[in-house]
Structure formats: C-alpha cells, structure tokens
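Could you help me review a protein record that somebody else here produced? This is what I was given.
***
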Amino acid sequence: MSSAKTANKIARSAERRRLRNSSTKTRMKTASGGAEKLIEGGEAKSAQEGVATAMSNIDRAVSKGIIHRNKGARLKSRLAKRLNQAALKKKGD
C-alpha cells in the first residue's frame, strides 16, 4: 500500500463503496436470474412480474451509478427480448 495519506484515504473510501454497491449488484443479478428461470418455466404472468422486478432493480443500479446506463439498457433489452420470444413460442405451439 502507498505511503501517501491521500492514496490510503482513496483506497479506504473505494472499499466502502465496493461493499455498499455489492448488495445492489447482487440483488440485480439475482432478480435477473430469477426472471430467466420464470421465462424458461413458461408461466407467462409470473414471468412478466419477474422481468418487471428485474428491470426495476437494473434501473435502481443505474440511478445509483453502480452500472453504466448503456449496460442497464442492454440488460433490460435482452430480458424483454427473451420474454417476447418465449411468448411467441408459446403462441406458436
């Protein structure tokens, strides 16, 4: 570790931010994974609710500056795309 006081302070504050951000990231990833499983399960109503929850968590992470807004948009787009494909597949059966 550096001997400079400011470098040590920056490292300490970065560690605090990392710990604070990890809970939001974990919540976001868990919700996204849960939504994926619901989509694969075929339950339309619960899948929509799961995707809505996941998108809300992604928006929260973006607004807090934990992930970049383009990454948030990409994740939400992919979730919506999977949900729509599952719905179309269900209608085709």
